[in-house]
Each structure stands twice: as C-alpha cells, then as structure tokens.
Amino acid sequence: MSQASIGGLYAIADTRCLGPDILLARVAAVIAGGARVVQYRHKGESIRPHSEVEGLLALCRSHGIPLLVNDDVELAAMIGADGVHLGRDDDDPRWARARLGEHALIGVSCYNELPRALEAQSAGADYVAFGSFFDSPTKPDTVRAPIGLLQQAKNRLTIPLVAIGGITTQNAAQLVSAGADAVAVVSGVFAHVDPCDAARQYCALFATHGDRRATQNAHL
Questions:
Q1: DSSP symbol at 47
Q2: Total-model pTM
C-alpha cells in the first residue's frame, strides 16, 4: 500500500449506521460502485466480534481495496489491516508506524488545523483529513473547517488530503476543486437506497475533475 492508495471515494463503514446483518453487503455494493478506500469505524460501548472486521478485511482484500481501522492500532495489528486512522486523542503516528510497519497506511484527523496537519506529515502520516466542511448527520457537533483550508494545505503539504463531514454528491465537487484528493463519506453512500449507485456518483466527480485538469494542462 502507499499514499497513492488514498484518492477518490473513501467510504467509512460506521457500525452505528451498519448493523452486522448488512455491513458486508453494503460495503460490497460501495466497492462495486468504485470506492477506493474503506475504513472500519466502531464507536460506543458495545463490542463487535473480531470476525466482523476480519470478514470486512477479506472482502476488501478480494477487491484490492485497503481497509483501515479507526482509532484502534492494536485491532489493526491483530487482524493485519492495511492501516489505521487516528484522531486527536489516539496514538501518535510514530508509534502506530512502529507497531504496524513501514507499509501501513496511517491517516490523521486534523479538523480545521493546518499546523496539526504539518506536524502529522512530519511524524510520517500518509494522509491527513480535514473537516467537517458541512453539517454532518454522523457528527453534528463537530468543528467546522473552511473550504479555503484545502487550498492552503495543498500549498504546504505533499501527502494526500481527505475531506470529511456532511459531503454529498451536490457539494463534493467544490471540495475536489479546492484540492481534496479524496472525500470521506458515511451516510452519503451507506444510507442511500442504492449504495452502489451513490458510490458511482461520487466517483464520477473525480473523473470529471481529472478530465478538466488534463484539459487545462494541455493548454499550458
């Protein structure tokens, strides 16, 4: 795995939205629609069996898609996940790298803080995530980030940028145009009546943006 794996649709399989009876089927549909990365996120006091995330890892591996575990470095190490995503109160990226190895993908939430992103990059993070850019149904009380932050970060960082928070197919294009290499989505795909079709709509935005940039470069 590498930084190049982080791009396009980054699907977050949040167990608060996905029960064990539908988790694998919904994730399979989103992968079929073009998701490039899947993150397993489990919050709360209830304990989900390791077999659940192991099954998710097997599904992702069968499609060549990296699976990252939210917050839990030890769980990622135990199941052999492709990496981990760390928040403000989680382990240091350097320790995660030492625990998971040089080929693991390590992401860091940076909220609306460019200095935190610069520090994460120096600590060896493979990508950083900014947001919430819009009102998020998953995290309604989270801090808001201005879209201009993506443009600032693009000028200062060399690792991929992930945008998160209330992202829909209607507002994602402006984030991609501002510099987001990937958009992280929960309800935008998993709450959709057709997760596969929703994923395709997000992926089409990246294809359109890429075509536009190619055309611009051809005229330089």
A1: P
A2: 0.92
